[in-house]
Amino acid sequence: MYSVINESKRLFGIMKSSNEAISIFRAAFEGIAGELPNKDSLLGFVHDLSTVCDSDSFQIQISILDETVTIQKSAELWLDKYKDLIQKSNADDQSKVVIRIDKKVTNKIRIYSYNTFEDDYLRSSLCGQLQTFAEIFKNGYDHVIFHVIDQKVSIYTDYIAITDKEVVWSEMMSRNVLLEKSRQSSIFLTRNQFPLLPGDFNCVNASSIMLAETFRKLRNILSYLYIANSASLIDDKVLLQFDPSVQNEEFLISELCDNNLAFEIYNWIYAEDNSIDRAGIARNIISIHCHNHWDYLKIDDEIVSSIKSNYQIYLKKEIKKYLQLKRDISDFIVSSTLQIQAIAHDMTDGLKNNFIGVMTFFIVSVLTGTVDFRDFKDQKTLGIFAMVCLIFDVSSIIYWIITLCMTNAKWNWIEKSYKGLKNNYCGMLDTEDLNIAFNNDSAYKESKMDLKRIRLVVFAAWSVFIVCMCIFTKYIAILAGN
Predict the structure, then answer these.
(1) CA 166, CA 194: separation in Å to the nearest integer?
(2) What pLDDT, on the 0 to 100 scale, is given for residue 102?
């Protein structure tokens, strides 16, 4: 422990004023020149202060009459000036000393005089108290630690620690994750100015009753802001809207600080999953029970119980819908599998029918004597035969195109039915839950890949068959031309 103020009183005299905020500590002292410390004592104080301040910067201004010496870490810059100032002064001349420490504001901040810090903080307005911590959390920190230098203190909230000890945070939801959930579930119009959460001020341990009480008030104010559908905080006024069809209700910020049930509702909404649905139900119930300015301030246990019971009813309905969704997905998988099998059967039938038709022509021609291969040297016979083959070629190509188009059309019907199934449940589930329910479209993608594979094999084989037919026809045509 090291008290800058007590040590300064010993060296410089009576303290006239002191103040401490997040970014600065300042204390002023008055005494007489004859009681100012000698150079060794002053060097020792500067060394101790340098150790305590670490990365923070400080300066000490010592004034006697109209002359001032500014003292910093490096003694080379001020030691001779200080000795000259003491030598030129009378022992009973008034001395004034101002100590200023400029703090480096990160998620770890030093408190040099806890009592001064607490007094200054408690004297500010409720909006000013929120703004103090908002300036730190604008940097996106998950936790903030105030390391107290001068006394034993133990004040812990979910995300803030004011203590003289080392801090080990318990496992809980990340503050930035919770902040993102609140962004998705509520419209806090001045969120950028006040990037705060009720949990920032939810005390789990507090050695200071006054600060714990102030934190409780700030927690409740922020809870109202996140319970409402839309909210804004400007100076000492708050605008809240629970029902989008009703105009905003205006409150003084001090009116929202006493109802602890606001935090209970907030915690119920955001502590678990499905916060969007929970928030919607909470706002609907509050809108049903609260009809004027004063009703919103008197949210009671009956409203809280009604919110929770309505959510249970909602869950039962959603579970039924979810089970129906799983049945619909299962039915689709079975149905699409059967349809893909039918499509594959149609493709193979097309190739088979084409092949059988050609083979039947040749076999019937030979058996019935329609074509006498002994007359193949006759150009007229070859010409007729080439013409018939050409007709078969063209017919096969047309048949190939029609079959391919029908295959693609049938798959498009399956695809549309799948997308229609997903769209039916878009209102019930958000995008993430919908993807989980449909297993990231794995069944649909597997079916699509199976169809592509079958289509590639069948139509490749069919294409080779048609190419062979065309080559044969070309050969016959060349013979006929000779």
Answers:
(1) 28
(2) 94
| Beta-carbon contacts of residue 262 (< 8 Å; ≥ 6 apart) | 220, 223, 224, 227, 256, 299
Please state the three-class secondary structure of 270-300 as a single string.
Answer: HCCCCHHHHHHHHHHHHHHHCCCHHHHHCCC
Together in a domain, 262 and 362:
no
Please check whether residues 354 and 327 belong to one and the same domain: yes
pLDDT 10s digits, 220-267: 999 999 999 999 998 889 999 998 888 888 999 999 999 999 999 999
Specify whether 274 is located in the same domain as 356: no
> Do 255 and 283 belong to one domain?
yes
Q: Which residues pair with 101 in a beta bridge?
A: 25, 58
- Residue 67 region by backbone torsions, left for phi larger than 0, else alpha for psi between -120 and 50, else beta: beta
Q: What is the pTM of this model?
A: 0.67
CA dist., res. 193 & res. 225, Å (int):
13
Residue 469, domain member (yes or no)? yes
- Report which residue type is found at 68: T
DSSP 8-state assignment for residue 22: S
Q: Which residues contact 350 (CB under 8 A, 6 or more apart)?
A: 399, 400, 403, 458, 462
Q: What is the pLDDT of residues 368-394, one digit of tens each?
A: 555 555 555 555 656 666 677 777 777
User: Per the domain annotation, does 304 fall within a domain?
Assistant: no
What is the rounded CA–CA span in Å between residue 242 and residue 250?
A: 12
Last residue of a domain, one of 104, 137, 168: 104
Picking from 104, 125, 152, the residue at the C-terminal end of a domain is 104
Least confident of 1-5, 220-224, 363-367: 363-367
Comparing C-alpha atoms, which of 207, 219, 185 is closest to residue 430?
A: 185
Rg of the chain over CA atoms, in angstroms?
Answer: 42
Are 259 and 364 part of one and the same domain?
A: no
Of 224, 284, 212, 286, which Cα lies nearest the Cα of 251? 224
As for how many domains the chain has, the answer is 3
Residues 187 and 62 in one domain: no
DSSP run (H or E) holding 57: strand 57-64
Query: How remote is the C-alpha of 158 from its chain's centroid?
Result: 19
Contact 117, 80 (CB under 8 A): no
Residues 90, 150 share a domain: no
Q: Which residues contact 394 (CB under 8 A, 6 or more apart)?
A: none
Instruction: Phi first, then psi: give them for residue 261, nearest 5 degrees.
Output: -70, -20
